[in-house]
Amino acid sequence: MSAKDKFHEVVKTALQKDQWIVTHDPYPLQAGSFNLAIDIGAEKIIAAEQKGRKIAVEIKSFRSPSRIADFYNALGQFISYRSALKLQDKDRQLYLGVPSDIYEEFFQTSFIQELVQENQVYLLTYNIEQEVIERWLP
C-alpha cells in the first residue's frame, strides 16, 4: 500500500465539512492479483431520493518539480483505479483530488484540459488553507 498523500487529511476534513461520511480510509480495491487502495471512500445521503451517492477520491498534491510528470502518474493511476472500481463497486464515482491553486495554474492549460476531457477524469479541487472542497468537475 502506498503512503498517504501530503494533503490526505486536508481532503478528508474538507469532505466531512461538506457533509460526506468517510466510509473507507483507504478504500481497498482488488484488481485480479493486484491489491490496490484509493485514498478515500465516502458517501453522502441524498434525502430527497433516500439513496446514497458514493465516491472515491484519489488525492494528489502536484508538488514535485515536474507537474507534467505528476499528471502522467496521476492520470495512469486514475484510469487504472476507475477500471478496477467498475468491477468492484460500479455505483461509486472516482474523483481525482487536486489543490485549487494547481487546478488554476496547471489544469486550465488547453493540453491538460484536452487530456482530462478525453479520459473522462472527474476532478475535485480543494483549498489547502481553508480545508474545503471548491469544485466538483464535471
What does this structure look like?
This protein is an alpha/beta fold and 138 residues long. Helix content is 36%, strand content 36%. It has 4 helices and 8 strands; from the N terminus they run αβββββαβααββ. It is globular. The model has no long low-confidence stretch (mean pLDDT 93).
Protein topology:
Layout: H1 8-17, E1 21-24, E2 27-31, E3 34-38, E4 40-46, E5 51-59, H2 67-88, E6 92-99, H3 100-107, H4 110-118, E7 123-127, E8 132-137
Parallel strand pairs: 5-6, 6-7
Antiparallel strand pairs: 1-4, 2-3, 4-5, 7-8
Please report which band the strand proportion falls in: under 5%, 5-15%, 15-25%, 25-35%, 35-45% or over 45%. Answer: 35-45%
Run of helices and strands: HEEEEEHEHHEE
Q: What is the C-alpha radius of gyration, as a whole number of Å?
A: 14 Å
Strand segment tally: 8
Euclidean distance between termini CA atoms: 29 Å
Strand line-up of the largest beta sheet: 1-4-5-6-7-8
Helix content: 25-40%
Number of helices: 4
The average pLDDT is: 93
Main β-sheet description: 6 strands, mixed
Uncertain spans: none
Question: Could you say which overall geometry the principal axes of the C-alpha atoms support?
Answer: globular
> What structural class is derived from the secondary structure elements?
alpha/beta
